[in-house]
Fold this sequence. Notes:
Elements: H1 2-6, E1 10-13, H2 37-65, H3 70-73, H4 82-102, H5 110-134, H6 146-156, H7 159-181, H8 202-277, H9 286-316, E2 326-329, H10 330-347, E3 351-356, E4 362-365, H11 367-383, E5 390-397, E6 403-409, H12 430-435, H13 443-453, E7 457-463, E8 467-474, E9 490-491, E10 494-495
Parallel strand pairs: 3-5
Antiparallel strand pairs: 1-7, 2-4, 5-6, 6-8, 7-8, 9-10
Helix pairs in contact: 2-4, 2-5, 4-5, 5-7, 6-7, 6-8, 7-8, 8-9, 9-13, 10-11, 11-13
Amino acid sequence: MGNSAQTAMAVYELPLGAALPTASLPRTQRHGGTLSEVLLLENAVWFCHLRWGVAAILVLFGVLSWVPDLFAGVGLLSRLVWPFVTGALLATANRGFRYHLRAAGPEVSARRVTANLWSQIVVDLAILTAVVHFCGYTDTPIYFAYLFHVVLACVFFSALNSFLVTVLACVLYSLCGLARLKGLLAAAYLLPWSGGPFCGGQPVLLVHLILPQAFWLVAWFLTSHLARMVQERDMALAVTNRQLVQAQDERVRHMLHTTHELKAPFAAIHANAQLLVQGYCGPLPAKALDVAGRIAARSQRLAWAIRDMLQLANLSSAGQEQPAAVRLNLLDVLTRSLEQVSPQAERRGIRVQMQGQPAAVFLVAPEDHLRMLFDNLLANAVAYSHDGGAVNLRYAVATTGEVLVTVADNGIGISPAKLPHIFDEYYRTEEAVRHCSESTGLGLAIVREVAQSHGIGLRVESQPGLGTTFTVRIPAPAAGSQMKSDQEGVHDGVCTDC
């Protein structure tokens, strides 16, 4: 029972798009209290989406008012026309705002977006004032809707601009009340039992005019203060993030430069040590020959480590230009990867076999990246196989058009708890260190970067002591991946005219 649990099959699938995040500057940088152009445009579009909902609510309210006995049953006036008019005006204005934004194209200027936003605010407040009037002004709490505009302005605008929005709301509300009081606007109500505008005399007039506006100004002060604190914190985080990005870029550049400079000296040391070992400089004493052999082996391992570090840094660097995708035969790529690991496999008596369908499989992909992926998977399989073991490489095209490649070994395997960590940089299990001390711990990290850069699926199945199988799924052309089969003379990833 304990033995079966120990050797249970473990399965792990590398998440697509879960590569280590590339730091980038946030779009919420502010200058002079205003949002960036991109975020301003997003806010203008968001306001338009919200306005469609408000227009729909107004029209629905008007429709319900014409349902027999519905509004009368709850004490409201029926057969209202103004909801249709205000809803139509709001929808018409919204179409104009959207057209104004689209007409500028993708390179819309901040000035145009700002003008669009202010136009939206003025129209919204004007229509809201009309709604407040038709609802009886102070007979219903609809005038609290002004607070929505005040709060949104505090969140999206600077303190000065949000204050101007608040003042505009107060002015429109006051003008509406004064116009009703002076008889310049015909009385309009939603409640049939309304006693008239400002019923109760001058004190009530002051309460209805002054108190709501006082609430709005207090709400503006508190909300703008909190919004300013959040914006200042956001600006500080943006500056810190920019400094971290610059420091990270500088570190990567320095590391790439240093490792590149070390690559040539270690290659020279290895070559010269090989000359000594092979006797080109004359016979050496046994102890000297042993020392030269160890120098050659150590310099070779360091050269491999430098190569892996350079590959991983280039793959994960945001500023690194991606190699061009070319039309290539998958069989050629796999064959070259097999040739790469063959010397090590032969020294340990490991059989490496490749099986696949006879038809060639053509892809359009960056050849260097694809070779990195398969080189490291095969090298990993050989390194952690037992002497005299076997590594099987298979490829096929699925009915979905995906190209499937499996690399299977019967080596030491990986325990279920450790399987999700094998793609981490420099991660090696205790069993892996005991079995092969020469690995750099970067091979599978390189595989991860290539797979996630190109949307390649990667599945790992392993049993401790029984071996590991890596399954690579290269997407079909219909998936829109960067890796796709060449359409010219290819059907479902298989060359039909070869």
